[in-house]
Amino acid sequence: MHDLVIDLARSVSGEFSLQIEGDRLQDIPERARHICCSLDWNCGYRKLENICKIKGLRNLKLEEQPSDDQCFKICKNVQIELFSSLKYLRMLTFYGCNNLSELADEISNLKLLPYLDLSYTGITSLPDSICVLYNLQTLLLLGCRLTELPSNFYKLVNLRHLNLENTLISKMPEKLQRLTHLQTLMNFVVGDHSGSDIKELEKLNHLRGTLCISQLENVTDRADAVEANLKDKTHLEVLHMRYGYRRTTDGSIVERDVLEVLEPNSNLNSLIIEDYRGTGFPHWLGDYYLLNLVSLELNRCGFCSHLPPLGQLPSLKELSISECDGIEIIGEEFYGYNSSTVPFASLERLRFYNMYGWNEWLCPKGFPSLTFLLITECPKLKRALPQHLPCLERLVIYDCPELEASIPANTRRLELHGCVNIFINESPTSLKKAYLWRNSCH
What we know:
By secondary structure, the chain is of the alpha/beta class. Helix content is 12%, strand content 21%. It contains six helices and 23 strands.
């Protein structure tokens, strides 16, 4: 921001908003309501002493200011003074304070607090006392080292936004379904027999935006999956369905039945299925159901021998398929059998990664809107490439030594490596730019 604009903002905010940084101590007006404070080793404690005198403070943002020697540690004694003095806080953020390793029980004094951000701190557990913050609406724990949430977490009845991304949490607290106001739940971890199960999602129908359901292999009962009621969560736009990575085939039939009934809402925009061990994909994937689906990723679905009819998804623009080792042939089923519609009418970007069992691509139809095609590390793929690609701008093929194919006529940009049987027709009207390892290509 331009310095003049900053000066203008400061003059308008006057005594109400302050930014305290560097080693300079300053008097804080009693009328201050919003403070952002950088805590350095030398003056950190004295800065907080001054802040604690402002009883009417509403928003407090604390930041670390690392020095060559060490950082200021927000220990329990410091927290107790803060939480006992600033009882009217509406926003408290410790974002990025790595030296905050535990939260004092006195956090319970902040009865009016609706917003708490502990993201990227060193906290490994939350005190039970946090569960009495009945006005808490937003709790951000992104990147924390938490392994679990307090057992009485369900008492935070007004909670609307909970971010658990990149934590170490292995199960959700019991009775989570009582938090019926939840709108944001970035990650739901299905516990084992001693933890909460997927049924806890049943009443959380206000969820919106993105939801990642992890450890789906712990769902062993089809009835539990039905109760999760994903279909009625109509505000969800992005769904990530993640299984724990296992190499055994045990449970593949169960996982197929479970995924079949975990039918998402039809308005879904993006879907990722990862480490799924079922022997087939669900019927709702590619059966004219997900009409608004724009992006789809199928990663490490190694026991499926056929792809679903994804060509029938009218809005699909991006498709990525990787490490589906059970797939040997991609044929008509990929496009769908409905002759009245154009398959993959909207698809613009198509990627295949590490398809080690794939040996043949039957391409009876092209991709009318495709602009980018990538095929990498498919060592058994022998043929062929689709030729009807009128909009293709970039073609990338890496490490497919068995592939025998010719480059589609309209290709504008080409990148090849480790493809000894690719025929290149360098037409000046089509191939505008090529990146070729010519010692590996013809």
